[in-house]
Amino acid sequence: MVDLDNPLVYQQFDGSGMLNHLHRFPEQCQKAWEKVLKLELPREYTKISNVVILGMGGSAIGGDIVRRLALAESKLPVWVHRDYGLPAFVDASTLVIASSYSGDTEETLSAFTESLRTPARKLVITSGGKLKHLAENEGIPAFVVDYQAPPRAAFPHNFVPLVGIFQKLGLLRDKSRANSGL
């Protein structure tokens, strides 16, 4: 029988160190919060009528939760797009946020590349890859994740930045106290 009170048992069955990542979850939320507060957004980003968050898997889950928060606190529609291409309503008053931990998610890259051909405002959340390269080349604001972990352990780095960005844009109330409790 497995003794779950023995820490060595977890080391034996947790080759990717997921338990350690879970223990560091509050610390990672705090680091992401402190970093997003330093992110500078162009003033015109506050003049939007909707937000489209591009993402797949874990990168989209942060968008789902922020969307629910925005439903309760903002009148601005927020759409989480898990597909190639862009919704037809994307225009100059749309903020498109591309979120891909790896920066190489095919669907997110496809949609983001399409957004480059629109007058929409754009923002990127990534740790690197082609998405980071595109943002740098196009002069698009980017929250660059500097946490090296399996994507499933990077949730604080795709959710917390979205909360901070939405707060900066006036779409969510101040969440500083919630983060200080971590």
TrEMBL record:
UniProt xrefs under InterPro entries: SIS_dom, SIS_dom_sf, SIS_PGI/PMI_1
PROSITE patterns, A to Z: SIS
Coiled-coil annotated residue ranges, if any: none
Biological processes annotated in GO: carbohydrate derivative metabolic process
GO MF term list: carbohydrate derivative binding
Domain SIS: 41-175
Identification of the protein by name: SIS domain-containing protein
